[in-house]
Q: What sequence folds into this?
């Protein structure tokens, strides 16, 4: 059974203190050294919040760390209210009920990026699959296996090419009645990007955000080393697939562990193949995307999972300048693209994917 795969960020805080010369000094000198140590200490602020149906952690280092974290937390809560399909006041719910409408700046960007990724992945990423998600009960947790007839009818509503987005007027409309969209497959990556933007605005050079497993880091750690992101194995062992050293990157993983249910001995997970209407079963257990663009990383982690190993590798080779990936196959085989292979360590033998 696939279980929740949790990404853990190991943070080492290095305090920069004025050192002694190795001999005892007068009390005045000791007090002066203590004052210097306090002045050189890197300020840290951290906060945990619950939003977008998951627990999140924000951490920043710098003189404005507290202000940066508070503003970032407020931004997360704002985006959560704006983009949630279940919030009666959300913009997405209004769009789905009205068959379109005028868009705020954030929603416009997300729909535009979603259409771009849809076209780039030839439909593997599809925000119009929401009616099928509803039929499976993944939106309400009232799980059920829909009939083949139901799925065939709903598949008619999932053609994302029938989403009409006007980039000048910032409006969206659907060509077919009954179409609905869900930005959940891209929203967390966009949100982590926004957190990084806010950190930079507050002159933060070192920070991280963990949005329920979606990790994005800014700069290096305060000791000058890279952040280490450990990716846990999606089984009951508690072991890690490996540890990635990185900076200024988003590290986002998708897999069937996030939401699933069992019926008649069969596991059904929430990543829907837009072609069949069924949970994608293309030979992959999890997909991790590493990119400077959190929004793209979020969308591609789902896309490559839907594609399966061979198509995912081919897609990376065509776009290797934009992202790297770690693929875990159903048979336990682990694959790492060459762009990050020298910064990924694992007790599991892994195959390096070359261009």
A:
């Amino acid at each position: 059974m696939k279980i929740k795969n949790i990404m853990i960020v190991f943070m080492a805080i290095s305090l920069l203190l004025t050192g002694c010369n190795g001999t005892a000094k007068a009390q005045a000198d000791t007090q002066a050294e203590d004052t210097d140590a306090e002045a050189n200490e890197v300020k840290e602020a951290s906060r945990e919040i619950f939003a977008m149906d998951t627990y999140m952690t924000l951490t920043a280092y710098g003189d404005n760390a507290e202000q940066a974290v508070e503003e970032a937390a407020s931004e997360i809560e704002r985006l959560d209210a704006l983009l949630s399909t279940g919030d009666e006041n959300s913009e997405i719910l209004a769009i789905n009920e009205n068959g379109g409408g005028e868009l705020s700046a954030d929603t416009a960007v997300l729909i535009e990026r979603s259409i771009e990724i849809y076209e780039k992945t030839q439909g593997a990423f599809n925000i119009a699959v929401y009616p099928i998600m509803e039929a499976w009960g993944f939106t309400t947790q009232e799980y059920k296996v829909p009939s083949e007839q139901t799925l065939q009818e709903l598949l008619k509503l999932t053609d994302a090419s029938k989403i009409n987005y006007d980039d000048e007027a910032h409006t969206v409309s659907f060509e077919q009645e009954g179409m609905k969209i869900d930005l959940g497959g891209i929203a967390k990556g966009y949100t982590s990007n926004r957190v990084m933007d806010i950190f930079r605005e507050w002159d933060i050079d070192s920070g991280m955000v963990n949005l329920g497993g979606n990790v994005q880091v800014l700069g290096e750690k305060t000791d000058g080393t890279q952040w280490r992101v450990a990716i846990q194995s999606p089984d009951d062992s508690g072991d890690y697939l490996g540890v990635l050293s990185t900076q200024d990157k988003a590290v986002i993983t998708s897999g069937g562990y996030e939401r699933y249910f069992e019926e008649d001995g069969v596991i059904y997970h929430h990543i829907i193949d837009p072609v069949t209407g069924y949970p994608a079963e293309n030979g992959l257990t999890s997909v991790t995307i590493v990119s400077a663009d959190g929004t793209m990383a979020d969308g591609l982690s789902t896309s490559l999972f839907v594609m399966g190993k061979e198509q995912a590798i081919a897609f990376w080779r065509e776009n290797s300048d934009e992202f790297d990936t770690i693929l875990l196959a159903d048979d336990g085989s682990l694959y790492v693209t060459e762009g990050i292979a020298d910064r990924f360590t694992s007790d599991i033998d892994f195959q390096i994917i070359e261009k």
About this structure: The longest helix spans residues 65-83. The longest strand covers residues 44-51.
